[in-house]
Every structure is written in structure tokens, then in C-alpha cells.
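User: I'll paste a sequence; please echo it back and then give the predicted structure.

Assistant: Echoing your sequence first, then the prediction.
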Amino acid sequence: MSDPKKQRTDESAKPKVVLAYSGGLDTSVILKWLSEKGFDVICFCANVGQQGEDFTAVKAKALSCGAIACHCTDLRKEFVEGYVFESIKCNALYEGRYLLGTSIARPCIAKEQVRIAREYGAMYVAHGATGKGNDQVRFEMCAQALAPEITTIAPWRDAEFIESFKGRKDLLAYCTKHGIPVDAKPKANYSIDENLFHTSYESGMLEDAAVSPDESMFKMTTDPKKASDAGDKVRIHFKAGLPVKMTTLADNKTVTDPLELFLYANEVAGRNGCGRIDIVENRFVGIKSRGIYETPGGTLLRAAHLDLEGITMDREVKRITESLALEFSRLCYNGFWFAPEMDLIRNTMDFSQKDVEGSVELELWKGNITVLGRESPKSLYSADLASMDIEGGGEAMDYNPADSQGFIKINSVRLKMYSALKKKFGGA
């Protein structure tokens, strides 16, 4: 790390750094270490819906450890409306399974960190992400896109820091030396990252891909085997591809506020054991990683949205948006939220969603989500046109089943040519 003293324009003032701070062991050590290196440290803790987080205690700890200020910003509404719902609108799914719960939160957090840095005139931001994970890339790519003049400090890639802290034992010894309070509760044998979209579990005992997760670790979802035998039926309404209303049919409870809607989706899907996955994924840095995820509300809303697209979206638009969804997921996972190609995809997706309007009824039962029906004022589905029983069905669309003969002949020309080529050269 460069010497902050050499970076000063005013020798009477210390350089400022905004540290993404959780109040945990690593970032508390980093806070004190940066202070010792000559920085004025402004801590920033993002409220993105972590369960049971005491932000008052986090702020008090940051200030007691030497921060000149600590901002605990409630980003939950922005996170849902600007990021979570964007991923649902795009049917985002990384490698066919992961709903991007951690990935989608990072640009939201990074944006606020940069805003605070500019407010204080800080020329540095810092984070506690390791040198082997995706988060270092996500935080720094977002920061560079939003404020290229700001330098990122990543202690877990700094040779001096790594030499001083080879493991948890060294971190605890440093805390003892500097009077940094340490949580006395036993540390779980895995790491947890959580927000209102999901909770993830990895590392520790879970690094053995053959080891099953302990049921006691799950925070957002009931064990599917122990979920209610009754289950729940819900109706979810969308407009322009976004969830706008959710109703549980048993009690007719309805929510419309975006944040409250999403939290209620979490509650209902979670109590029915929906949204758990256990996967091995490919990190951007080239390492395979085993992760266990709970994403109850996201799983429910994505299933509803995907189904509604079936009756409201043109076939060719659907084909194109499916490929864009894959690219959206890859870019989000890899940290390119603020890249021009992501802007292109999101604007295209906005256009594709203009007629995705209507409602979907679903049943949730012991980890399963089943679509029961859907309707839309902008439906492209015609029972008359699709019917196998109605003679003359589709007359209003000038559709004659006999026309299919020519359609099949034209589309089979290239298949016949391919077959002839294989026969000519002895192919199978």
C-alpha cells in the first residue's frame, strides 16, 4: 500500500478513507490498522436487510475503534427497487441455478460508499474482501466505474497486512493489544453473507463438497419436510415486468409497497421451505466455490414472472431476452453492473417488459412452487387459436392448419441437404 503521508496535499490533514465496515473481526482490525497507517477512517455499514443486525452497536464499535465517523445507511428500499426487482425482471440466474443474492447487493453498497467518499472528500475507499473471492472484484469494478479518481485499499491483498495477520489467531491477538471488543460467541464453522434477498453459507466445513449442510444453520427457510401440510396459495400481480401486488388467498392479505411486498414474499415462501439450493459455482477469479443459498422470496417472484412472460411476450422477443438474461447474470456476478453493456441490456429488458402485465396464482408446499393459473389484459394467448377441438379455430387470425404443410417443407430443406451431405461422404 502506498504511504498516505505522500498523498497529502495539506500536511495538516490526514487522508480520508471510507471503509466498508461490518463490525466483525476482520473489518474492525482493518479499521485500526488503517488508522495506524495515518488515515482518518470513515466507516460505512450498509443496511440491506441483515437479520438481527444492531446498527447502533456497530456504529458505537466503529467510533470506539478509532473511526472519525460511521454511517449506517438504510438501503433496503433502494436495494429492492433498483437491484432485486431488476434481477427478477430479467429472470437472472447464474449458471442456471444461482439467483445472485450476494452479487446483486454489491453495486448497491459500492454506490453508497462512493457517495460518502465524495461527501467527505475522501480519495480512498477500503473493503475487507479476501483476495480469492468475487467480492473484491465487484466492489472495485463498481468503484472504478463510479469514481475512477478514487483509489481502493484492499488489505487482504496487501503484503504487509498479510504478513502481520496469517490467521484468526493473529487477528485476535491484535484486538487484545488494541482493546478492540470481540464477539464472545463461538464462531460458526462456515461464513455467512446475508441481505433481504438471500442468505449464503460457504467456507469452513462446507469447503468439503460432500458434506451436507446442518439444518440448524438455515435462517430464512423452514425445513421443507417440516413445513405446513396446508401450504399457501398466493396471487402475484405484475406491471411492466415488476411485482406490484401480492395476496395470500387464505386470509386475503395484500401488500403493494415494493419493500413490504418482497419481505412478505420472503415470509410466505420461507415458511414453506422454498428457495434452498446447494451448488458448486465458478468464481470470476477462476476458482470453483461451493455455496449454499436461501432465496425464498426471489425464487417465488421469479417463478411467477417467468410464467407471466409465457402469455404476454412475443416468441422472438422471448428468445432474445433469454440470451440477454444469461449475459445480465454473468455481468452482475462478475461485477460489471455499471458497465455500458449492462446499460444496454437493462434498457433492452425494459422495452421487452412493457406488456408483461397481469397476475399469476401459485401454490407453495414443502419446498415446491406450482403455478395454478395466470391472466393478463395484454395476453397474446388465444384459446381459440390454440384449440385442437374447435373446427376453424383461429379464423380471426387467418390461420389455416393446411398452411403448415408448406411451412414444414420450407423448414426441412436444410435438414434434407444436411442428410444428403452425410450420405455422400459416408456420415452416420
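Residues 129 and 136 are 5 Å apart (CA to CA). The chain has a mean pLDDT of 92.
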